[in-house]
């Protein structure tokens, strides 16, 4: 019997990882493909697509498996995946992450929130949703999100052998970083064990998610003749919150001395200021707060602040009335 119980008309089983630069989805896709090819003798391919932008921009990694007697001649991006792995839940605000998901497909999300909240945000009414606190595990074990996501992905792709991945982890770290072997094995194991599932049966005639190829807003067909872009380079709509990896700065204005050290190191101009008068009536700029839309959680501001007015906090990202709210737990 085939190891791959679910395949498409070309006999492929396809996985798409949706992530942001810096979270290790590229490497996770590579390791996933290797474990199927080297561990099980399947045919498989993997490649990633990412832009030339800085860390924090959207990344996709594609993994395609098939039986050893089937040739893979299709090297195009995966449009109708069986499994989607969402490395950062906030990505859905900027990328159509579920695009093309097959009926009966599985969506794995790195999140601490409830199934209901994630279904509402992703607009994913039926099908199998898998949740894993991959960031929490990585922070506990001092490892990376991609290893805990891999643990959960191995549980979903139950035809893969977790022992192969344990071996890959050992081989990857034991020579140069032997102290990282055990934490990474624990991270993988926790991802495998702690992933939670919820399946809501689809209606019998339910279609998969429609595939959408993102089109540029302005091109030769849509550009207004003689039109003028008045806000070129404008970053007003840019949302960097998806780049944060579990932490964000919290400001205690009561102890702030408005020295602007934080502003001088912040790479994304997140600090908001207003002019006012000091106690002697002299004009001065006063720090008003942090615009979290542009904050990518690098925490350089926390390091530089001389008064401890900025501290780092674990972040849980939630959505209320379409506004992102960051709130603290623990
Ligand atoms: S570095 Fe600290 S004290 Fe200085 S303005 Fe920023 S928050 Fe305030
Ligand atoms: S963590 Fe601080 S320095 Fe880094 S982007 Fe956010 S506000 Fe700016």
UniProtKB/TrEMBL annotation:
SUPFAM superfamilies with a match to the protein in the record: 4Fe-4S ferredoxins, Pyruvate-ferredoxin oxidoreductase, PFOR, domain III
Gene3D superfamilies to which the protein is assigned, alphabetical: 3.30.70.3270, Pyruvate-ferredoxin oxidoreductase, PFOR, domain III (3.40.920.10)
Alphabetized InterPro entries for the sequence: 4Fe4S_Fe-S-bd, 4Fe4S_Fe_S_CS, Oxidoreductase_gamma_subunit, PorC_KorC, Pyrv/ketoisovalerate_OxRed_cat, Pyrv_flavodox_OxRed_cen
Residue ranges annotated for the 4Fe-4S ferredoxin-type domain, each copy included: 247-276, 285-316
Keyword terms: Iron, Iron-sulfur, Metal-binding, Oxidoreductase, Pyruvate
Top-level taxon of the source organism: Bacteria
Tagged with keyword Iron-sulfur: yes
A Pfam family hit: Fer4_7
Entries under PROSITE patterns matching the protein: 4FE4S_FER_1, 4FE4S_FER_2
NCBIfam families registered for this protein in UniProt: PorC_KorC (TIGR02175)
The protein, known as: Pyruvate ferredoxin oxidoreductase subunit gamma/delta
Organism: Paenibacillus segetis
């Amino acid at each position: 019997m085939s190891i791959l119980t679910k395949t498409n008309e070309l006999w492929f089983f396809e996985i798409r990882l949706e992530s942001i630069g810096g979270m290790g989805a590229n490497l996770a896709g590579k390791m996933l493909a290797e474990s199927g090819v080297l561990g099980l003798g399947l045919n498989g391919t993997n490649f990633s697509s990412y832009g030339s932008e800085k860390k924090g921009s959207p990344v996709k990694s594609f993994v395609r498996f098939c039986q050893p007697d089937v040739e893979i001649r299709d090297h195009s991006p995966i449009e109708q995946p069986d499994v989607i792995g969402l490395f950062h839940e906030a990505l859905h605000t900027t990328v159509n992450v579920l695009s093309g998901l097959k009926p009966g497909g599985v969506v794995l999300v790195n999140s601490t929130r409830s199934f209901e909240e994630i279904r509402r945000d992703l607009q994913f009414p039926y099908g199998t949703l898998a949740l894993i606190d991959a960031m929490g595990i990585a922070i506990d074990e001092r490892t990376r999100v991609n290893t805990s996501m891999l643990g959960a992905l191995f549980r979903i792709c139950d035809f893969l052998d977790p022992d192969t991945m344990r071996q890959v982890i050992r081989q990857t770290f034991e020579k140069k970083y032997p102290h990282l072997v055990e934490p990474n094995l624990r991270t993988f194991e926790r991802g495998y064990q702690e992933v939670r599932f919820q399946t809501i049966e689809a209606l019998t005639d339910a279609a998969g998610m429609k595939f959408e190829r993102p089109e540029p807003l302005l091109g030769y067909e849509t550009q207004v003749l003689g039109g003028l872009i008045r806000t070129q380079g404008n970053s007003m709509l840019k949302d960097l919150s998806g780049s944060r990896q579990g932490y964000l700065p919290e400001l205690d204005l009561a102890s702030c001395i408005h020295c602007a050290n934080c502003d001088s190191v912040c790479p994304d101009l997140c600090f908001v200021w207003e002019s006012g008068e000091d106690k002697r009536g002299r004009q001065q700029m006063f720090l008003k707060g942090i615009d979290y839309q542009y904050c990518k959680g690098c925490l350089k501001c926390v390091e530089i602040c001389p008064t401890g007015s900025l501290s780092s906090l674990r972040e849980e990202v939630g959505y209320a009335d379409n506004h992102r709210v960051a709130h603290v737990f623990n």
